[in-house]
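Form P-L/3: holo structure prediction, ligand NAP.
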Amino acid sequence: MKLVIGGSTGFVATELIRQGLENPAITSIVALGRRENPAPLVTPKLKFVVCDNFESYPNSVEKELENADACIWTIAVTPMKLKTTPFEEACKVSRDYATTAIQSLDALRHKQARPLRFLYMSGHFAPRNPAEIPKELQDHGLINYGLLRGETETLILTYGEKSKGAVQSCVVKPGLIDAPGREKLEIPGLPHIELAGIAAALLDQVMNGFEKNTLSNDDLVRIGQKALIVGQHGA
Ligand SMILES: NC(=O)c1ccc[n+]([C@@H]2O[C@H](COP(=O)([O-])OP(=O)(O)OC[C@H]3O[C@@H](n4cnc5c(N)ncnc54)[C@H](OP(=O)(O)O)[C@@H]3O)[C@@H](O)[C@H]2O)c1
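OUTPUT (holo model):
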């Protein structure tokens, strides 16, 4: 299976690459990022691809993205970085880059019999409907950001629904992701998940099929725990 990971340098992407390399069912990983990875792993199974235009991929990047079986898209402006990013830029990075990715990966499949599986990482509080804005977003001044992420969820899911079976899309809505050695934040109302568990869950879902089109933090904890046990003891 050829897997594209959108965001080669990020917190989640780094763990996806680590686990993906250990998984024999994944035969090729293309890690797409805006810059060189500072600590690139050298193995024939993994290719880091640097891209300078995420709204219209250069031909050289398109070539690397051809005939992907699945994609896990982690690129976004996260809430922590929102303060230093103009909102227009956040829209481009968090929404438009993802919609370009799903369209391009679909168009770049020339010989696949199976559908493309595209998984978009969103967040626990992102509302798809302005009438359902959680109080927590209001409290943190994140209403427009939450709506942006919710709008992107809808665009990604609608693309899959309209693709006549060519693309299966899925949105995941984790809470706070914890990792050993990383400061554990607490935000009221926001659940937690371990980095190893969420990475295992995302890889499980793109390999074995999406359980449903939207996975909550609880779903991801459950799927990840099972996937890690299977990984340790064999299927
Ligand atoms: N971490 C959490 O606790 C958490 C919780 C819930 C949801 N999520 C969601 O999960 C996803 C991954 O989170 P993460 O913690 O792994 O985030 P991260 O470490 O900040 O990684 C984000 C990735 O996006 C890339 N990126 C940011 N701006 C970009 C731009 N202008 N052009 C191209 N690439 C750009 C980053 O590249 P650079 O390295 O070059 O900046 C990085 O590869 C995000 O959608 C996030 O909102 C995360």
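COMMENT: The pocket of NAP is lined by residues 7, 9-13, 33-35, 54, 74-78, 93, 121, 123, 174, 176-177 (CB under 6 Å).
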